[in-house]
Write a structure and sequence with these properties.
214 residues; alpha+beta; 10 helices
Length: 214
């Protein structure tokens, strides 16, 4: 009698996913139109002077003119783990929020001006054209406020999303960025960019007056 070989679970799962992708629609995901890379810091620890951080790959869609929503992954690879979400709103919407609610949101001004926030370049896009597109995007993002929750603390080695979601923030000062220099250098090398050069290119970006709560 011929022995039937057992298909490994990973292969079987891949086949099932492939079949489902051919018959199911993923409309919300098709609205993703922007890929941003940055580093998020843990807000509670930052308030105590500790800069604990994790790389954050944002896949964002524009729900409407005054609201963006981003899925946050720990990498841009096919096996990336979904670790959080971020919502972004312009200043005029932020200013209407209750003062207690405003405490949960952060500015993107330092991320943009320091060159730390970037749009990874598609392989088939000419460098000059992509830099122009990225600069245009930064003119928009610099005026946005973000609210970010992470569910999965991969930086401490968790194999699953454990515990309660944690509030995240963005870098706000040069002092905070000092602890991230090795991580930023590694990220820059991976993507073939120079954050310092991006900072120079963004010197002309006008920064909207940051709300006093930030």
């Amino acid at each position: 009698m011929e022995t039937i070989k057992k298909v490994p679970a990973a292969v079987g799962t891949t086949m099932q996913e492939g079949a489902q992708s051919m018959i199911q629609e993923f409309k919300p995901l098709k609205n993703v139109c922007e890929f941003l890379n940055a580093f998020h810091i843990y807000a509670e620890e930052a308030s105590q002077g500790v800069t604990r951080f994790v790389e954050a790959n944002h896949y964002c869609s524009h729900v409407r003119k005054d609201l963006r929503q981003c899925l946050i992954y720990d990498s841009n690879k096919s096996d990336a783990r979904l670790i959080g979400v971020e919502y972004m709103i312009p200043k005029h919407v932020y200013e209407k929020l209750d003062p207690e609610e405003q405490k949960l949101w952060h500015s993107h001004e330092f991320e943009v001006k320091s060159g730390m926030l970037m749009l990874p370049k598609p392989a088939n896009m000419p460098q000059a054209a992509w830099e122009a597109a990225e600069l245009s995007a930064m003119h928009e993002v610099v005026g946005l406020y973000g609210k970010t929750w992470h569910f999965w603390q991969v930086d401490r080695g968790d194999e699953l999303p454990l515990g309660q979601p944690v509030l995240m923030g963005s870098l706000l000062t040069n002092e905070q960025s000092t602890d991230l220099k090795p991580a930023i250098a590694a990220r820059d090398e991976e993507h073939g960019i120079d954050s310092k050069e991006k900072a120079k290119a963004r010197e002309g970006i006008q920064v909207p007056e940051i709300h006093e709560s930030k």
